[in-house]
């Protein structure tokens, strides 16, 4: 029985009885086309040129499959394709790793050189920096407050609380002078009021001493002492005297 591929028109000889009345699934050995073939009742006249073409490809075999057979699996990629995919994966990996390393390094340097801003935003992080040996000085940490005097006096019929003192720089470096904060406390140590002011000098030279003074009108009658400390406020504040 002679069968013709409906796609490329190649012809093949099939043994009689190979194709039953219900037909079978065939696959062309030349173009791999698949189709369902019914029995051919009568010989088919084939043009000479088609017979010649069939003769030239007589080394090709017709693959016959039952109707329940699965189609051919996808072709396996060539070795050069696999090698190319592997090279693409290798080239992508170093780029991603490099970006991660750059991000980590940038984060570390930002955490070190921007630690003052970080501590201003989250003061609790100063403990972590201290453990890492990256101590961040607090305002006025290396300055000394001394010779503080506090008294009440009457000025033009108004009672005021007068505070005087000195700031001393014991270091061999120039230091910034932060805002000074005075807290009025009662006999039990409770803070009753707080007054902040900006010293006139913005910096202190090594071993330099400056004086400061401020007055608070109408102090609380329960005030028994004043505690002088440094404020975390920036000197751009409107406070001052």
How would you explain this protein's 3D organization?
This protein is α+β, with helices and mostly antiparallel strands and 241 residues long. It has 3 domains: 2-65, no CATH class; 76-136; 144-230, Sandwich (Immunoglobulin-like), CATH 2.60.40. The protein is built from 4 helices and 13 strands. The chain has helices at 48-56, 79-113, 115-121, 125-131, and strands at 2-4, 11-13, 24-27, 34-37, 63-65, 144-155, 158-168, 175-176, 180-185, 191-197, 203-204, 209-217, 225-230. The strands form 5 sheets. Strands 4-3-5 form a 3-stranded antiparallel β-sheet, with no helix packed on it. Strands 6-7-12 form a 3-stranded antiparallel β-sheet, with no helix packed on it. Strands 10-9-13 form a 3-stranded antiparallel β-sheet, with no helix packed on it. A hairpin with a 6-residue loop joins strand 3 (24-27) and strand 4 (34-37).
Keywords:
alpha+beta, 4 helices, Immunoglobulin-like, 241 residues, 30% strand, 3 domains, 24% helix, three-stranded antiparallel sheet
What strand order characterises the main sheet?
4-3-5
The CATH topology annotation of the largest domain reads as Immunoglobulin-like
Succession of helices and strands: EEEEHEHHHEEEEEEEE
Stretches where pLDDT falls below 50 for ≥5 residues? 64-74, 237-241
Number of domains: 3
Q: Helical element count? A: 4
């Amino acid at each position: 029985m002679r069968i013709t591929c409906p796609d490329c028109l190649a012809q093949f000889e099939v043994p009689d009885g190979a194709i039953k009345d219900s037909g079978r699934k065939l696959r062309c050995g030349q173009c791999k086309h698949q189709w369902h073939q019914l029995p051919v009742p009568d010989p088919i006249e084939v043009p000479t040129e088609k017979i010649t073409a069939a003769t030239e490809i007589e080394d090709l075999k017709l693959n016959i499959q039952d109707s329940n057979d699965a189609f051919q699996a996808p072709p396996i990629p060539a070795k050069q394709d696999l090698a190319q995919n592997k090279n693409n994966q290798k080239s992508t990996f170093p780029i991603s790793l490099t970006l991660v390393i750059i991000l980590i390094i940038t984060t570390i340097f930002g955490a070190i050189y921007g630690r003052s801003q970080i501590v201003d935003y989250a003061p609790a992080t100063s403990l972590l920096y201290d453990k890492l040996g990256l101590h961040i000085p607090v305002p006025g940490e290396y300055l000394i407050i001394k010779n503080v005097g506090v008294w009440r006096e009457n000025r033009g019929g108004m009672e005021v609380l007068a505070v005087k003192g000195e700031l001393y720089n014991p270091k061999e470096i120039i230091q910034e002078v932060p805002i000074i904060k005075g807290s009025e406390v009662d006999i039990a140590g409770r803070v009753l009021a707080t007054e902040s002011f900006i010293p006139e000098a913005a910096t202190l030279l090594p071993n330099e001493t400056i004086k400061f003074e401020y007055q608070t009108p109408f102090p609380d009658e329960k005030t028994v002492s004043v505690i002088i400390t440094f404020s975390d406020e920036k000197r751009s504040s409107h406070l001052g005297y």
